[in-house]
Amino acid sequence: MKLLEGKTVLITGASTGIGRAAAIGAAQHGADVAINYANSDGPAASCVAEIEALGQRAIAVKGDVADPQTAQDFVAKAVEAFGKVDVMVSNAGICPFHAFLDMPADVVERTFKVNLHGAYFMVQAAAQQMVKQGHGGSIVAVSSISALVGGEYQTHYTPTKAGVHSLMQSTSIALGKYGIRCNSVLPGTILTEINKDDLADVEKREYMEKRVPLGRLGAPEDLAGPIVFLASDMAAYVTGAALLVDGGMYVNLQ
Ligand code: NAD
Ligand code: RM4
What we know:
The protein has a single domain (8-245), classed as NAD(P)-binding Rossmann-like Domain (Rossmann fold, 3-Layer(aba) Sandwich), CATH 3.40.50. Helix content is 41%, strand content 15%. The chain has seven helices and seven strands, in the order E-H-E-H-E-H-E-H-E-H-E-H-H-E. Nicotinamide-adenine-dinucleotide binds at residues 12-13, 15-19, 36-38, 64-66, 91-95, 114, 142, 144, 187, 189-190, 192-195, 220.
């Protein structure tokens, strides 16, 4: 059964990792997909080609999510190409691992701007379009297990992920009257570019693997199903919710 037939899905930061897996997953479920990406044209073009090979339409729009204008442009380009916006997946994010005591101010500011401001303006732009269309919609934000627990080298990052989770709670209230649902997924540790260097430390990687009851770290594809589900009408009565997708890592005390 295809869950997103006839829908237009927008995904930020979708040339790699979780965003890309969600874009492919949405296309496999019958959606046309617009992806936003930061700078590398090659991976964005190959994501578009993969979606087209599935028989769906796709566009790639370059832009830095930290700039509010990027959100307006992304939504406008998607509407120009596909006529509407049904789903926004706010996924783009960075995590430049760094110790707390000597954390440079510009790293903090950039992380806040990309992860939190970026999500805010993307969600707002999508919601403005959905309200104009008048037939509801679904917003899925990629938060993190890090919204709930801390990280020694992530003091600038975890507050943004808690912020994204909170943003979905507040927007679910603000947008419920328009039939727009807002939820977040909270991935555990998923092997992608964002943590490639951090997990190159074999000891750390093995420690992280041991913390997962399902016995492995996640793959980007592990997020595709949960994101497609929340985007779809199968989740018609789900809003303001947060779905952990972490192999059980969060609940594993001992
Ligand atoms: P990734 O590095 O493959 O993906 C992040 C994407 O965001 C990249 O394509 C990157 O180019 C893009 N991006 C970065 N800055 C941008 C900007 N300013 N404008 C537009 N795009 C930008 O890593 P990922 O793990 O797939 O990360 C996706 C999301 O998942 C992030 O929000 C991250 O916080 C979240 N997350 C990841 C994990 C994990 O373990 N990998 C766990 C929890 C949450
Ligand atoms: C996640 C979580 C993972 C980390 C990534 C970068 O939220 O903390 O363990 O690898 O972020």
